[in-house]
Amino acid sequence: AEYMGIGYYLVIMVFAWYLDASSEDQRLPHKKHPNDPVSLEALSTLGVFYWKIDADNYEQEGLLQKIRHERGYTYNDEITIHPDKLPNYEEKIKNFFTEHLHTDEEIRFTLDGGGYFDVRDKNDQWIRIQVTKGDLITLPAGIYHRFTTDQNNYIKVMRLFVGEPVWTAHNRPADEMAARVKYAEELEQTKRSDAFGVGSTVPSVTLFSLDESEKVVKVETHDAFKGKRVVLFGVPGAFTPTCTARHLPGFVAHMDALRACGVNLVACLSVNDAFVMNAWGKSVGQGRVDLMLGDGNGVFAQSIGQVKDCSANGMGSRCNRFSMLVDDLVCKLFFVDMAGLEQTSAEVMLRHLQSD
């Protein structure tokens, strides 16, 4: 089973691969020989997310409605792309396959038929993502991409949107557009974070917490984590909306299950001071998280390449949302959310631990 987003696990996976260099019919798969597949985890680092939904029973199933609620999708319509159904079909297919970006997230739920979304990776190489009936895919604002049907020339999709829809496509080059600048900055951040990942030794840095008498104490990561199986999750800020409503409470709710999987220590980190982290841990965390760690100077966030620039919101430098499993100082699992709460939730971590 693979995690597809917001705590759901499914056995059917999206298929993605690096494109070959052929200029043949765009509707062909264009796989390399041998094939060079791309994982869901790799797609998630580009901001591309995927769910599998029962396209024949989605209203009763409830998964689509839950995703819509949690991600704020308020608008939807349906479009059929077929020579007999779409006016000016040839012209529109040509436009769809011209490399472009949107200034808002693109959300497509395939109700029938199939096709391909091509997206650029961190090195500007094309990745082809196959979508078929029941696939829901989201592409982030600012990503360069294109779309084509497969050789059946038919796909029926539901388009979803946050607020009023804006369908304008901005053809490449559009590097100066705000959406592209923001996405490029986030992509560069993930490049820097590639230096730290599964198999890396957790950084040896000094963090801060409060002891039982509420005095500030230093926490040396190697001393605190050595010989233990640790789940460490980081958040952009204590008392901020998603962190308070979902991220921290999720780990509190699943604390017993994490313990049952052999986790000795659960720690929460944020670029806040130890007093704020302690107050947040008591009020929201119910005192159940073992360590509420203040990374006030951002040294840990910087060490793992996860510094987040929140200066536009008056918050300075913070930390990207992340979660990791550390076993005797070695990172065994590592997830990052550049936006929202997708890969770093307690449910995702628990699922991986239970399937280990």
Give a nutshell description of this structure:
The chain contains 11 helices and 21 strands. It is of the alpha+beta class.
Question: Can you offer a commentary on this structure?
Answer:
The protein is α+β, with helices and mostly antiparallel strands and about 350 residues long. It has helices spanning about 40-45, 60, 65-70, 90-95, 180-195, 220-225, 240-255, 255-260, 275-285, 300-305, 345-355, and strands spanning about 1-5, 10, 15-20, 50, 75-80, 100, 105-120, 125-130, 135-140, 145-150, 155-160, 170, 205-210, 215-220, 230-235, 265-270, 290-295, 305-310, 315-320, 320-325, 330-335. Strands 3, 4, 5, 7, 8, 9, 10 and 11 form an eight-stranded antiparallel sheet that branches. A hairpin with a 2-residue loop joins strand 1 (about 1-5) and strand 2 (about 10). The longest helix has 16 residues, at about 180-195. The N and C termini lie close together (about 10 Å). The model is unreliable at about 1-15 (pLDDT under 50).
